Amino acid sequence: MFKISQISKFGELLDKLSVAKHAIILHSQDKILLEAIAKLYVMKQECVDQNSPCFCCNNCKKILDENAIDVEVYGKEKGIVVDDSKAIIESSYVLPIDFKNKYFILCGFENATVQAQNKLLKMIEEPQTFDKYIILVQNLDAVLSTIKSRCQIFSLPRFNDEELKSVFNFKIGEAKKINNAVQFASGNLSKLNDILNDEKFDEIYSLCLSIILNMQNSSSILEYSSKIAKYKDKIDMILETLSSFYRDMLAIKCGEEYLVQNKEILNQLKVLSNMTNQTALSAILKEIGGVKQKLKFNSNFNGVIDNLLLKILEVKYLCK
Ligand SMILES: [Zn+2]
Asked: pLDDT-based confidence at 83, cuts 50/70/90?
């Protein structure tokens, strides 16, 4: 979380939030980021250090450890219902004990019922001077317009790939798949977390690597095709992984090694890149890009995949 606050665009956002209205809506597809920004916002308000948030004063620590008495979190386990709204209203009149303000963090607001939202309306409209409402939502359309009009809305920026890598706490041994995972996560910390916790991601990475390294003849096409079919629901991940390998080979070919994403297999990619010409690499990338489209209109999954593998093999032969 410290690292997120160090990224300038999020630092600027926190500055804006600290002078925002008593009720704010934070909007992003990234659930982890939403919750992190909500915490950082509260820390920035309540930190006792000059460099707020300092992450080490008592207030910051309580907020980080989620045991601050004046921070109430709702909707984390399941969508907010009328009973939650009632509890919020009741508590909203009670003065803060520890902090200057009292904070109500309303998570997953896209799952809040209409009745629950309606019930909160009056309180958001006529708040106590010490109350702050932080609504976290992945889909703005799910928020009643009457609530939206009473709040200040902030759409959170996305991470770029480098930022995403810098904030994620990778485990040892994950290095190999990080770059592809980051690419696949497209700036979303929650998505990155899901991918790296998905045990299939490892298997898919190895399968794709094996396709580009070991697939030698048409008889092996069948073998790989049936392996891919097992991950039918993860086909996007397979295509993105394959693309990343070929993009890397193309980068090597163009003398732009610094662009290589899968640095851990750089030497293998170099060998492959040497064996292939630039036109063929571009053609394969185009082919992979087209597969998604084809699968949308063509129900013959195996046929489309066989065709792709055949093209990959053709390129290998043409260039030999
Ligand atoms: Zn602090």
From this structure: very high
What is the CA(34)–ligand 1 centre distance, in A? 20
- The H-assigned helical ranges of 31-144 are 31-46, 58-64, 82-92, 114-125
Q: How far is the CA of 298 from the centre of ligand 1 (A)?
A: 57
> Is residue 246 located within the same domain as residue 144?
no
Ligand 1 centre from 138 Cα, in Å? 28
| CATH classification of the domain holding 244 | 1.20.272.10
65 Cα: distance to centroid of ligand 1 (angstroms): 13
Asked whether residue 227 falls in the same domain as residue 93, the answer is no
Last residue of a domain, one of 106, 134, 157: 157
Q: How do residues 136-149 score in pLDDT, each as one tens digit? A: 999 999 999 999 99
4 touches 167 (CB < 8 A): yes
Handedness of CA 247, 248, 251, 256 (dihedral sign): positive
Is 202 found in the same domain as 128? Answer: no
Query: What is the C-alpha separation between 126 and 120, in angstroms, rounded?
Result: 10
> How does the average pLDDT of the chain come out, rounded?
91
Verify that 88 and 229 share a domain, yes or no.
no
Q: How far is the CA of 27 from the centre of ligand 1 (A)?
A: 25
CA 6 to ligand 1 centroid distance, Å: 15
Same structural domain for residues 139 and 220?
no
Q: What's the 53 CA to ligand 1 centre distance in angstroms?
A: 5
- Regarding whether 16 and 152 lie in a shared domain, the answer is yes
Arithmetic mean of pLDDT, 94-104: 96
* 262 and 314 co-located in one domain: yes
Question: Residue written as tokens 């899901």?
Answer: 194
- The reported pTM is 0.77
What is the tens place of the pLDDT at every residue in 252-272? 999 999 888 888 888 999 999
Instruction: Give the SS3 label for residue 22.
Output: coil
Q: Residue 115 C-alpha to ligand 1 middle, in angstroms?
A: 37
Residue 274 domain flag: yes
